[in-house]
Amino acid sequence: MSRVRADACPGVFAVHDAADGPLARVRLPGGVVTAERLRVLAACTEDLGDGDVHLTSRGNVQLRGVRGEGLAGRLGAAGLLPSPSHERVRNVLASPLSGIHGGLADVRELAAELDRELCAKPALAGLPGRFLFAFDDGRGDVAGEGADVCWRAVTSSSGVVLLAGTDSGLVVPRAGAVSSLLTVAQAFADARGAAWRIDELADPSALLPDGPREVPQVRSNRADPTVGRIGQAVGVAPRFGRLTAGQLRVLADFGDAVVTPWRSVLLPGGADVERLHEAELSTDPSSTEITACIGAPACAKSLADVRADARALVPVGARVHVSGCSRRCGRPSGTHHDVVADDGGYRVDGRWTPASGLADALARKARA
Length: 368
Known about the structure:
Elements (H helix, E strand, L loop, with lengths): L15 E3 L2 E6 L5 E2 L1 H14 L3 E4 L5 E3 L7 H7 L14 E3 L13 H12 L13 E4 L12 E5 L4 E6 L2 E8 L3 H15 L36 E3 L2 E4 L5 E3 H8 L4 E3 L5 E3 L5 H6 L11 E3 L13 H6 L8 E4 L13 E6 L2 E4 L2 E4 L3 H10 L1
Helix pairs in contact: 1-5, 3-4
Pfam family, one: NIR_SIR_ferr
EC number: 1.14.13.83
Protein name: Precorrin-3B synthase
């Protein structure tokens, strides 16, 4: 594949120049963030950003409107930038509920181990910022998120390697999961040419290391609820994935957290739900049904203030993503109603409707 522009995936040292100011993305491998680091992020966005932290569809966080100096130093001092040379390639998903509720294998330490090993390999600092690793504990949640390379548990001690979401047939014990994924990543780095993702290669299977094979299988994917009470844990859904500094501090009061790829935050140790509600943090699972990109005026490419329009919508029993342009930033990977701003209105799953008729159009689809 021929590229006409360089990979501009943002980080902290290489920010994106958005309409509302520089945007810095902070990677959280496995989505894990300690209470102390939540407080650091809250202070950073108050002092240097727009006052909010924005969750991403890869379980990372972003600060918008970054101004002044010192962000990298403060994040680095908190351990959020363990390797400046690797900061944009530390894209690692892990089943958020692993080790907490359900699943076949606990993959939490695998994500942390991969991050350490990745940062220790200078050659992998050159991976594209879009390259994505994942560890699925067997339930099939992050396996459906389109990772370039994923280890998916099939028992408590063994799993298979997926390439671009497809079972490769390579069977790898849990103890070898990290090394296998890094071997694939190195092979991709050596062979990629101008490719950014594994599915852009003619033969992704050529990246696989030697090992026992089985007939590839199609396994079902699902996203278990990460909002509400889940066993001892409590999950919250910030509206449009946006957390104020004050809300971050409330979350930090309940201990460490896990940011999910579905723009929710899981509190494994539990929380006082009444206090969460007082902070305007929803624990209603239906509140995750309607998502939206940042939209105008923060994004110069957006054709509408999509979040203002999305606020007027009510859940229809299915996922809805509202985008300001055809890039569809932040859209979910699974089945959803595709709502895209276009010519003074929106296209709902391809059919144009005026902005004033958006709610009715979605309601009709729900009844169909």
